[in-house]
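Inputs:
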Amino acid sequence: MKTLILGGVRSGKSALAEQLAAGGALPVVVVATARMPTDADDEMARRIAHHRARRPAAWVTVEEPLAVAAALAQHARPDVCVVVECLTLWLSNVLLERPLDARREIENLAAQVAQTPGELLLVSNEVGQGIMPDNALARRFADLSGHLHRELAARCERVLLCVAGLPQVLKGNRDAALA
Amino acid sequence: MKTLILGGVRSGKSALAEQLAAGGALPVVVVATARMPTDADDEMARRIAHHRARRPAAWVTVEEPLAVAAALAQHARPDVCVVVECLTLWLSNVLLERPLDARREIENLAAQVAQTPGELLLVSNEVGQGIMPDNALARRFADLSGHLHRELAARCERVLLCVAGLPQVLKGNRDAALA
Amino acid sequence: MKTLILGGVRSGKSALAEQLAAGGALPVVVVATARMPTDADDEMARRIAHHRARRPAAWVTVEEPLAVAAALAQHARPDVCVVVECLTLWLSNVLLERPLDARREIENLAAQVAQTPGELLLVSNEVGQGIMPDNALARRFADLSGHLHRELAARCERVLLCVAGLPQVLKGNRDAALA
């Protein structure tokens, strides 16, 4: 089954993805989109370390800031559970490095997700429900993020939204147990 | 029936409104609140063109950046479906042009909605669930937007929230089919 | 019962908390975290006055911008209903005055909530679903706010999210009447 997990900042979406992955019987591959900063004291370095420390030792972590579709093609199998954390960082990486290709990258990823076998857990931040900042890049990011989420939600059997650590079922069986 | 459709940026709220309008048997009037910019290459011009291209040719589009209540009074009929896209732009226009009257304009619109016959689909952005920007105008906008949504939600039989293209029923029959 | 009430700006969360408190039979203590500004024309002063004017005269209001856990320990009883408005302001006060202790303050509050008797209604803003502002303090605030909400949601029997004045049940009995 393919699951898209959305949520705000620190809403419990990564913890939920990892809980769902751990609750299944399949081996787990984590596709991590965060770039490890060179300065290990950095805020982002602490976040990455925090996320890593939480994951079971048997899980394989693949760092892939940009080529997430290729990573899915390489690692997804009918008997593997792939967790992608998180697509907001991926989209931000895409916008910084390939700004003109962002829309095509989203289509590519959505097409790859559609044909991905096995268990797939995609984690992304909801960023579109606040006041829009007064700069064109942030508006473009919010637009693309909304587009990405719609494309992925249409191709996933289940969509969950975390608020205060509580997953709400936006699509799929509302009565199924969540890990 | 009167329906308020809320959602974040690119969450599918306009597409849902147009789908619901197209799914009914009534002729459709779209009250469009966006001002067409003079520079046709502009970001907003592209958005407006994108929205227009999507709508059936038989629909009538009325451009009304400010006097939306008057447009409802003029165009709404028991045998017409009126779509208003979108009230966030309307509120922004009101704040720019009639800042001291914003609250009264909201009351006027809510009163007009209460007595509007026929099918009515009101589209607006949820903007209040992010970090508040550090400027008084943005805070006032978020305040007024929250006030507007509460006033309209109280006068509509159905309120939907779009997330990732998936409409959630906040008010009304949760089991009714959405177009 | 302990209830956490979340929502965006002007989403009806305080009105709901007061409605739930008024609908019960218990005497009500409001723990108000807003500091009254010295300038009475100020935006915040108007908000505070607006909130106060809405509350029944029999309710006791305790102003406590920082020591909310202590206020709970002092005022909560099995036969009292305590309303805390709002924890977003409290967290903001903590970050300004005790920035290094913010995490510990959150743990303290959550521990106090866990052992609080009687009726408890906690009001807080959802702030994590917009574009993150480009400054470290705002990001830290959003992080801590998400952490706070998860800690509190885990210790409350009921969690509600207000959108456009409409409470959605995130945790607890979805069929129970809301005041």
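Chain B touches chain A at residues 7-12, 43, 126-133, 138, 141-142, 163-166, 168 (CB under 8 Å). Flag for discussion at group meeting.
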